[in-house]
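Thread: Modeling a multi-component assembly for a lab meeting

Hi all, long-time lurker, first post. My supervisor asked me to bring a structural picture of a complex we are working on to next week's group meeting, and I have zero experience with this. I have the sequence lines for every component (227 residues in total). Could someone generate the structure of the whole assembly? Inputs are pasted exactly as I received them:
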Amino acid sequence: AQSVTQPDARVTVSEGASLQLRCKYSYSGTPYLFWYVQYPRQGLQLLLKYYSGDPVVQGVNGFEAEFSKSNSSFHLRKASVHWSDSAVYFCVLRMDSNYQLIWGSGTKLIIKP
Amino acid sequence: EAAVTQSPRNKVAVTGGKVTLSCNQTNNHNNMYWYRQDTGHGLRLIHYSYGAGSTEKGDIPDGYKASRPSQENFSLILELATPSQTSVYFCASGDVGLGQNTLYFGAGTRLSVL
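Re: Modeling a multi-component assembly
Sure thing. I ran the full set together rather than chain by chain. Output:
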C-alpha cells in the first residue's frame, strides 16, 4: 500500500547550520511529491514540488529537495537555517492514478539560537 | 492571492451537540477538502468535493457530513459531536490534477468537544 514516512518527529538545528528533513515514500506508480510547511498557528503552505526531470527542485526561502527513485526518498534540505524556519514540515505524495494525496506525519523543526 | 477562510477559528462544543465548520474560498477552485490534524497522524482527509453539489468521503468520514452548496463554500457538519472529534480542522481548495497540484489552506479551526 502507498505510504509516506517521515521518520523524525522532531529535529533540532542550530541557527546557521544546515538542515535535512527525511521523507520516504512507498508507491509503485509515478510519484508526484511535495513539501508543505506549517508555521505556528497558521495553515499549510506549499514549499516545493517535484513532478519529473531534474531530481533536485528548488523551493521558497532557500529550501530544496532531492528526489531519489532508487531510495524512494524525497529529502528536504537547506544550507543555512534561520529562526523563522521553525515550523512543522510535511512530505506529501500524490498518486498518479486518482490524484489522491498521502500525507506524512510531519517533522517539527526547532531552531536553537 | 488565493484565499481560504475558515470560521470559527476556535469552537468549544458539548458532547452530543451539533457543530458546523464553514469554509469559503475565493480561488474559483473546483475541489475543496476537509482535513483534521492530530499529533502523530499528520493530516487525514475527512470529506472532499469536486464542485457545487458534490461531496465525497475521504479516509475518515465516520461521524462527519459535508455540504457544498456553491463553488465558494464547503461546510463540515458534526451532527452529534464526541470528545474524539476534538482536533484542529483544516479546509483547503485546489484543482489537484495534471499540472495543478497546489492546495491552499485556511488557517484552521480548533475544536474542543467537552
